[in-house]
Amino acid sequence: MHMTNNRKIITAPFGTWESPLGAEDLAVSSIRLAEPRVFKDQIFWAEGRPKESGRTAIVRFVNGRASDLGPPQSNVRSLVHEYGGGAWIPTKLGVIGALFDDQRLYHFSNSSLSPLTIEPSIDRGYRYADPCLLPDEISTIWVFENHDHKGNEPTNSLILVDPDGSFKKIAEGHDFYSSPVCSPDGSQIAYIAWDHPSMPWDRTFLRVIDLEKNEVVNDRIVLEGFAFQQPRWSPTGQLHVISDETGFWNIHSVNVIDKSSTPIINYSSEFGIPGWVFAQCTYQWSNDNIWCSWVDHGVGHIGFIEENKLNELETNFTEFGRLDVLSDGRVVTVAASWTAPSVLVAISKDGTTEILNNQQPLILNTDNISQPELISFTSGDNLEAHAFYFEPKNENFQSLNELPPLIVLSHGGPTSSARSSFDPTVQFWTNRGFAVVDVNYGGSTGFGTEYRNRLKGNWGITDTQDCVEAAKYLAENGFADSDRLIIKGGSAGGYTTLCALTWHNIFAAGISRYGVADLETLARDTHKFESKYLDSLIGPWPEESGIYIERSPIHHTHLLSTPMIILQGTEDAVVPPAQAESLVRSLASANIPHSYLLFEGEGHGFRQAKNIATALESELSFLGQILGFEPATSITRVEIRRQKTY
Predict the structure, then answer these.
(1) What percentage of residues in the chain have a pLDDT greater than 70?
(2) Which of 187, 236, 320, 560 could disulfide-link to 293, CB 3.0 to 4.6 Å?
(3) 470/464 Cα distance (integer angstroms)
């Protein structure tokens, strides 16, 4: 032990450092802010609250004060595509939103709600998402997902919902729809559609509906052949869209008559994001300017386009959510930095900011926060891959003469990306003496279309290789202990984790959250949105069933020897519990040390504070037992089993 500025610095092994960031503190502080919307200069947003059983509340900000809409128990969440998003919208008659419990649309007032749409014949049979408002400010258009087919695949369409709750279809025939947006004069609706086996980041259609008195008189394809997203009308009625025709998602101006588009700026940065959830908006008009956010090498930026010139603002933020604008020209968004969690903020063109939400106290001081280094390394086929490396950091501790254990994070999606802002879960580990590397493997968004397409036909290969090479790179360059490498991932990241543990032997332990073990089961059992996703990532099923078997860890458990902990939700419709249970049986049969935690009532991702905390503490306990260290604070000791006893 020695003193620094009258503070005792304790020398202790990595993994045993005492942290002020407890799992329970992390769980209850992990409030999710999303989807800010401006209506008549009132600001609304969605707020996910782990302390309140993970429910999502709608918050309104008026006259400097934030307050909830609807009863305290109301949980606003859409299940369209299972991932949802865009479950609500402000109107002249108040907020309309979908409740998680039954998926019906309701009118929200200050403390009450009343049903708007009819109840289907089966539970959650009618689902609504991604609304837009018509010029009368009371009629709305929604993406509609109809499950009321007695076991058949749901159908998707666009519907127009009248103020009395009646609705009519205005577009149907494609497998999927998103992003309806109305022209300023109300005469046209632009929207995005796509069909199996494409995903929204592969190939979509930009279509335009002509309306007369809310009746469809024409519906036509305007653009096709690329991954279009986020159609928007300028205040003068000029249609725009984000297209990856340039090799990156750039904002284009659309000629509806000629069926052509032209980039208004052409940058090697991503102004779009993959359409996993609805209601995303990365550009928005403010008079003659366009506010926009973009990602460059995995990190978020914000600015505005004026006279076809991009003006970047210097802010402390590194990640941005949905954009909307106020009448005074400011943009409203959810933003976060490497050292602070998300806030709802209004940003002026000169870069000044106003925080609008009721901020939570910081759960770590800056001296305890590990900020990343962007690293690049050579991986498969001599291609460059990217990652964020976080070193262990705790102001009260220093290490012995040793290298730290390393946790390799494999993000979900897989067409997604590593977070580019403060992640309390990462800090949970770094503050205890772990190094962490969050890998933007080939296939990740934020590096252009070519990088994103690296995963086509190569899922389980490219992503796995990049995670393995990230670990090797850090170990070989003295940043991590090669004998204490860990890999962790959820969903698609869980699949990458299981592949790494099956076909590589460099990891000492693995953590899989609702990970994919059997690709054929996933192809058969998953929901409609992703039911053909594997066609591009693996190959058409069942025609290429041999490849599915070849790349499924469940069929190669004889190669497994690495201890692992598996965490799963009982209500997961994306990766059902049967996947985890099949893997656990195989681990038990092979006498491989393992732990299995099944969380009642959780879906694809954990939302309840108690479960978030239990999951983290169980992972820490598991790693302590496997790697041979004792966590500093008292936590419940997770049981590690070899043979099946449950």
Answers:
(1) 98
(2) 320
(3) 10
